Amino acid sequence: xxxxxxxxxxxxxxxxxxxxxxxxxxxxxxxxxxxxxxxxxxxxxxxxxxxxxxxxxxxxxxxxxxxxxxxxxxxxxxxxxxxxxxxxxxxxxxxxxxxxxxxxxxxxxxxxxxxxxxxxxxxxxxxxxxxxxxxxxxxxxxxxxxxxxxxxxxxxxxxxxxxxxxxxxxxxxxxxxxxxxxxxxxxxxxxxxxxxxxxxxxxxxxxxxxxxxxxxxxxxxxxxxxxxxxxxxxxxxxxxxxxxxxxxxxxxxxxxxxxxxxxxxxxxxxxxxxxxxxxxxxxxxxxxxxxxxxxxxxxxxxxxxxxxxxxxxxxxxxxxxxxxxxxxxxxxxxxxxxxxxxxxxxxxxxxxxxxxxxxxxxxxxxxxxxxxxxxxxxxxxxxxxxxxxxxxxxxxxxxxxxxxxxxxxxxxxxxxxxxxxxxxxxxxxxxxxxxxxxxxxxxxxxxxxxxxxxxxxxxxxxxxxxxxxxxxxxxxxxxxxxxxxxxxxxxxxxxxxxxxxxxxxxxxxxxxxxxxxxxxxxxxxxxxxxxxxxxxxxxxxxxxxxxxxxxxxxxxxxxxxxxxxxxxxxxxxxxxxxxxxxxxxx
Length: 586
Prior knowledge:
mainly alpha; Rossmann fold; globular; NTPase_KAP_P-loop; P-loop_NTPase; KAP_P-loop
């Protein structure tokens, strides 16, 4: 099994991206700087942050590195304070051995309480205090950057400050001396204390902000707002990993009344240099699978690193020379069960094109890893039950489930049951003498003919294999959705939101669909259909059906899947126009 978290070992040649980020944040002339690492769920953003951090640890220049996992503080009331306190606590620890430096670090940390109060005012009490959500917050937060010339324009934020004072009066005890409370003064002194402290350290501070796209929209933006405290201060770099579209959609959740222009410009103003995570192709997924396989096989750390370096070098030079072969990769290695590992590498090489090119996987590293973990889990279950099933058979079926969805998979297992473990259609697909176009495929399988053709040629061949045990094993996973087990949080949220849709048109859900990775669409549609199967009475149009139609109109495979399900229902008057609409879409 493989852990579903960021890796400190580069399996996908992400070192190139990490080195580019390192070049940016170690250039003194560019400080202070903010770098955005943008990519979809599971694309590898966290791994790139880890690789960057590890690279800096070996640098001659010493750095103070802070890792802030925004999701860890998801349940906290004040995300701004969580980031400030994480930075402050790191600086206090780094200064512990120097009495003078330690005093300054503690003095800086002591200012967090007052800044925290301001955070509570802006996040929790703005509405109660009568502070305009956009105007008040932006004017106070504008102080964080010190204005264009670094000076604080107090008159410009007088209304917001007065509102802050009103709330401060209502919260006696949060500040010992409320008369001395002055937001502009506190922010200016906070920034000065930080600048003096960094100057004393004489080391750059690098802050990595991760997992913003796992947070609620409000907390994600609140964390980014806190970063503005430091953006124009010396010797500081922020490296922020995020789903770009998710952040843009989160802006109006935080800044009520934000215009479309504000949503578009928000990240552009906060992030100086964007770095986009490259989507892995066939060669990268081949290398990724081989690395995961070698790791699972139990090769030594030294052997794993040699294999990794060889694969990395091959990827870097792939523009001018053929990829490294399996035998070249394994030569001169005294690996235990060498032939067994070679056989596993051959399978990895055969799987790579399907996993990289299938629209429901698209080479997403997290999806690939979760699929392999499902294979491992099923293999262990089969072993406990005495089933003679190998990983190749289980893997082939798991890929079918992910790429064609629940209905197509149920049809496969229905054919296995009906034809006593030997479906005729599989024998025809595997017969090189039978033309693919001449084979009568089930309607549910016509979602992706190119995938069916490639999948049928993937070993092992099923023609003479009794698939009854494999179908039995796999079917146990499908009710809970073997597909949904690898669904992102955003996709699960989309299922929930679409199921609540009561009207034909929803701008919010339309936007949510377009910002969800397309490789997740079939998983979402499967989730919707699983919910619909719980409905007993179809005489009335159920809530969520328009949500499903909205998704179906965005993707042909989803459209065919929904059509197949709806046609299996008792015909109702309300259903006819929906069927006609979907048939005109596909």
